[in-house]
Amino acid sequence: FNAQTVLTADGYICVTEGEIDCITTVAKTGHPAVGIPGANNWKPFYTRILDDFDTVIVLADGDGPGLEFGKKISRELGNVNIISMPEGEDVNSMMVKRGSDWIDERINECISIG
């Protein structure tokens, strides 16, 4: 979801699990993001698309599949930072609970160390 972002993002990109989390990330923080429709839908060719970025930031859901999603991407790419949401949460729910600054601060930390 939001695949055209890979053509315009510069230096880094966020990867979310799901379209709603992608929409929320872009709309509320302005950070470039793409959404994979579910933790089990990662395709091997996505690696080639994301490999050119200096930093890939995975916004992983706070559950088993979400954490495995982040680890899988990290194993396939050498330029990954994983931001795990708290247990039982995702980007959208954390945005509601803590606001856009909570997500924005964590993404900015990854960019500065990336």
Instruction: Quickly give the structural class.
Output: alpha/beta
Give me the number of helical elements: 6
Order of helices and strands: HEHEHEHEHH
What oligomeric state best describes the polypeptide chains here?
A: single chain
Measured between the Cα atoms of the first and last residue, the distance is 24 Å
- Rg over CA atoms: 12 Å
- The total beta strand count reads 4
Q: Tell me what portion of residues adopts beta-strand conformation.
A: 15-25%
Q: Shape from CA axes?
A: globular
Strand order of the largest sheet: 2-1-3-4
Q: Helix share of residues?
A: 40-55%
Instruction: Report the average pLDDT across residues.
Output: 92
Most strands sheet = 4 strands, parallel
Unreliable residue runs: none
Structure overview:
By secondary structure, the protein is of the alpha/beta class. Helices cover 49% and strands 18% of the residues. It has a four-stranded parallel β-sheet with strand order 2-1-3-4, sandwiched between helices. α2 links the parallel β1 and β2 (33-36). α5 crosses α6. The longest helix is centred in the last third of the chain and has 14 residues, at 100-113. It starts with a helix and ends with a helix. The relative contact order is 0.19.
